[in-house]
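REQUEST FORM: STRUCTURE PREDICTION
Request ID: SP-0412
Submitted by: Lab K.M.
Chain count: 1
Length (residues): 316
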Amino acid sequence: MAVVYSKPKASIILPVRNEEGNIGLSLESLLAQKEHDIEILVIDNGSQDATLEIANSYNDMRIRIIDTAGLTLSESLNIGVDESNADICIRMDGDDMSYPHRVSLLCSAHEVSDRALIIGSNCKYMTGNKISKQVSSLPLSTNHIRWRCLIESPFMHPAISFKRKRFIDRGYKYPKGYECCEDYALWCQIVFDEECENLSSCLLAYRLCTEKQGNPKKRQLQLSGHDNIIRKCFEEKMGINMSLSEAHIIRTLLVTNEYAKVGKYDKNIITRVSSILMSTYEQFIARGWDRREIFDEHRLLQECLRRLSVMIDARF
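STATUS: Completed
RESULT:
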């Protein structure tokens, strides 16, 4: 039986619901961590399969099960934060797998980067039992994270960690009303006021599956939520007002690169989007944020503005 510590070094917040096919692998990857001084909070949101039976079958007192049946994911995650005993909280989903050094590397990173509230990492992708060679390409520095946060989530949610006391003391919580994108809404509250970073190392295998990619209705709900968050983020953090249509165009251009879909909009709205993007970039530079940190984003933006200009000219 593993040794139980009065105050663990890290608390793993692991929300689950009907994960009987994956929870075993996830828990085993956590129990095999090189850093043994952890607690694992299995936040069960009303599982109706064998998820709880499997979780309870591990004879390890570091696993603690918390029942959140009937609550939203945001509410369940907030309970997980409140119930954690460690200084560092680490997220993970019940169908992902952590590499053996994940907890120790994240804890060490927090010791080195005392000012960083959130520290995430890159991931590999997993389908079934196969882990692909493809690695995520996340922004690493605080300024790059802020730029990316204007158009999409700058973190892989199950790969993040944060300093619990500072998170709570500053009043951060997973917000209500953002089903399927509560994490992105939270990042927009945090990253423009706090230091954050992503490690270039790949510390998690992130499962690609129907549930995560979403059925069409769930996926549409997520994308609509993203558009609303983009609009709100530009307004609150950059002082730029925009419509949901303009937010949708920005996401379509800079995230999915689907320029053909923008062709249905008239010249005025395309011109407005071009102006918003240029104004945003100029604000970043005016604030003293190093353009070298967002060089690749700048190249993408320049190409986007060039193609928008072509669309505008074609509408004369």
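NOTES: Residues 64 and 162 are 20 Å apart (CA to CA).
Reviewed by: T.R.
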